[in-house]
Request: fold
Amino acid sequence: MSDMMYASSIPVFKQMLGSLDAILAKAEVHAVDKNIEASALTEARLFPDMFPLSRQVKVACDFARGVSARLAGADVPKYDDDEQGFAQLRGLVARTIAFIDGFSPAQFETAAQREIVTRPGTPKERRFNGQAYLLSYGLPQFFFHVTTTYALLRHNGIEIGKRDYMGQY
Reply:
């Protein structure tokens, strides 16, 4: 089971974070080439009540780090979340990849049964076993924010497609 939990999380996060970095790089080049202020893209939203692109990237990275750490029984690192431009957002993605790259399959030995508590001590507290946490909460949340980042960039004219979204697999 530990192999399944590791294989269903770390390589998946790394693949999609790699694609996230690549599409952010394309967006940065696009902004320079078209003389567009980078913040016009990093602060773009699909709808006024949704997070801007910069926050979508941060939340995707938060989920990749948090889910990985919780499943491995490790501390979740705290980041300042003050990244603004493309270079800073790409740096965050790189730090996230480096963090999750530090986990081994052995650390996921009891991950499927480990109790995960989200928002402890609040009315929104939710308890999961590790498998349910990964498959029904963590991965869907992560993919939502990666997909929304892709959609924001595509909507704003960045020439990216499904291959860019999928990354290296």
Remarks:
- The beta strands are 115-118, 126-129.
- Helices lie at 2-7, 10-33, 38-42, 53-72, 86-101, 130-155, 162-166.
